[in-house]
## 1
Amino acid sequence: MEYKLTWQEYNKALKKDKLMGLKCNDCGTYTCPPTMACCSCASTNHEIVEMSGKGKIVTFTVVNIAPEGRENEVPYTIAMVELDEGPWIMGNLVDMDPRNVTMDVIGKKVKIHGRVFPGDHYSEAGGMARPAFYFDK
């Protein structure tokens, strides 16, 4: 069994501010980031789709102690966002100083952009794109 949308393709698109996902042709569920099987019905009958990249914050955490290799990035905010298409995706909230983030951000509309972060001690050289969220004004 092969991935319809590989992690490398997903990462390459994210670097161009395009959020790619999968739509299940059997039940209509969207999946992002890509997986091999539908998270709802386990089907592998998918089509690759470009997602809106818009959603709302459902929860967050502020990181004050970074993993090895990212010590100079703290503090930073990680947000869990429910995309308009349905799936939840995690990424950095970069539009607000982490020291000022409060519960008021929950429910706020955001838009995703790909942002390349340096790799950590265990990552591939050159860094990978990760979702970065900005408030949708």
## 2
Amino acid sequence: MYSAAPDRDHAFGLVFLGTMFVGMLAIHLRYSKKRKVPLKGADVARKLGLKFNPAGQENLVDRYSFINRMRYGKKRHARNVLGGFYRKQRVTVFELRYEASGIDKYSPADYYSFYLLELPRSFPETTIYKEGLVSKLYQATGHSDIDFESYEFSRKFRVRGKNPRFAYDFCNARMIEYLIGNTDLGIEIDRNVLCISFNKPLRFEEVEHNLDRLLAIRSRMPDYLFES
């Protein structure tokens, strides 16, 4: 006589395996979702030993107004500020929100993210930005670049400054090699501040990496620049 028990056992086994698969899939999706949650400023600050102020500081824009990119647009406001000592260097990180100025009445909001490091002495204004249309137009109006022997570096970056001698000292062989491998960086040195900036909102998951790059630039400044 034919018995249905094996079929029932087989069906039960399939149901059991299916239930286990669905459960494991749900756990995996829940874990994946947790991993994709963006980092929070307070968590990043705690990890790096910095202070965090999401509302920003009223005087921050004025304090660093000598930085060229800080003067873009209008109605500028700094927020998501992280500050303190990172690897024994005083740093400030923040996002600048501003309204893009143009011929249109509608001015959409735009962003920059800034990473600043305080230096023990002041230096003449020097800017290092990657080549682009704005750089070419700037040069066409009579503003000359500082030329370097490295063709690759000169092709990727435009260096301008009030003191060419300092620009050459700053853009030494080690610095040039590093910048060629990090062409997304925009650099300004002015007074006692070394700054890198990006034309995008601040992303907390990038803060540690960019602070490390800021310190890598600082470490490539020759010691004799700081001798009195």
## 3
Amino acid sequence: MSGLVIYCSRYGSTQEYAEALAKSMKWEAISYKNVSAKALKDTEAVVLASNVRIGKMGITKLAKRYRNMISSKCKALIVVGGTERDKQDYYLDIAKKNLSFLGLKDEQIFGLGGRQKMAGMKGMDSFLFKIMDKMIKDSPGKTEMMQEVDYVDIQHIEPIVAYLKK
């Protein structure tokens, strides 16, 4: 079966997962910026992989644009955020708010932890975190929200590979 892992990655975590998954499946990983209608038409299966930023998934516009081609071929959705992998309810909620129109089942949605590194943030992300840091005073969640984290573990794609191969 031919397949595409289409990813939207802001700082690299989602791209790492997408490329590792594509390699395991012997498929192609491609940035959402480079997807064409022809590529979607010519493939049998699609996995979408997207970052989460302020509750929004970066791949939503592409999924809406190609909804008719993607919905019948989408085998899985990978949601990558700045929280631990074990918080699957968070990832399911994000997926449903952003991509409910694809009609995916819960078992097709996989949440994976990403990175949050303040030093690497650019533009609006950097600005927003600086504003939050100044605005929020002594909140119990502030320390957690402002800390740098790295939850990326490529081995976490193994259940996705197993799911896709069954």
